[in-house]
Amino acid sequence: MYDAVHRVNSTKTLSGNSVCSTTACLYLATAEIYDPRLDVWQPTNPMHQGRYEAGAALLPNGNVLVVGGAATSIEGSVTDVLASAEIYEKI
């Protein structure tokens, strides 16, 4: 499952990931880039921690700022609201 999908330029999209069961979701620190020209998802550097409902913005220099969200437990319940940010450098 792909979450927090954000277009990072005219051709590529950055996505955070989650794994869900019928009762809960675990938001992972993994991330992927989608290239629609090749119709391929490729792994990229992981986030420092998984984020549920984080915000993302493309910066003028081509980096992506990912902010806030919430952390989840292994059972999928929200454990902490995150007051942190991460930057993906030019993807």
Question: Which residues form runs of ≥5 with pLDDT under 50?
Answer: none
Q: Structural class of the helix and strand makeup? A: mainly beta
Overall mean pLDDT stands at 75
Sheet with most strands: 4 strands, antiparallel
- What is the percent of helical residues? under 10%
Strand order in the largest sheet: 1-2-3-4
Round the Cα radius of gyration to an integer and report it.
13 Å
Distance between the termini: 21 Å
Number of spatially distinct domains: 1
The number of helical runs is 0
Shape, per Cα inertia axes:
flat
Beta strand %: over 45%
The counted number of beta strands is 9
- H/E element order: EEEEEEEEE
Describe the structure.
- This protein has 91 residues and is mainly β.
- It has one domain (2-88).
- The chain has no helices and nine strands.
- The strands form three sheets. Strands 1-2-3-4 form a four-stranded antiparallel sheet, with no helix packed on it. Strands 5-6-9 form a three-stranded antiparallel sheet, with no helix packed on it.
- A hairpin with a 4-residue loop joins strand 3 (25-35) and strand 4 (40-44).
Features:
flat; mainly beta; about 90 residues; 9 strands
Summarize the structure.
The chain has 91 residues and is an all-beta fold. The protein has strands spanning 2-7, 13-20, 25-35, 40-44, 55-58, 64-67, 70-72, 78-81, 85-88.
Write the layout of secondary structure elements.
Layout: E1 2-7, E2 13-20, E3 25-35, E4 40-44, E5 55-58, E6 64-67, E7 70-72, E8 78-81, E9 85-88
Antiparallel strand pairs: 1-2, 2-3, 3-4, 5-6, 6-9, 7-8
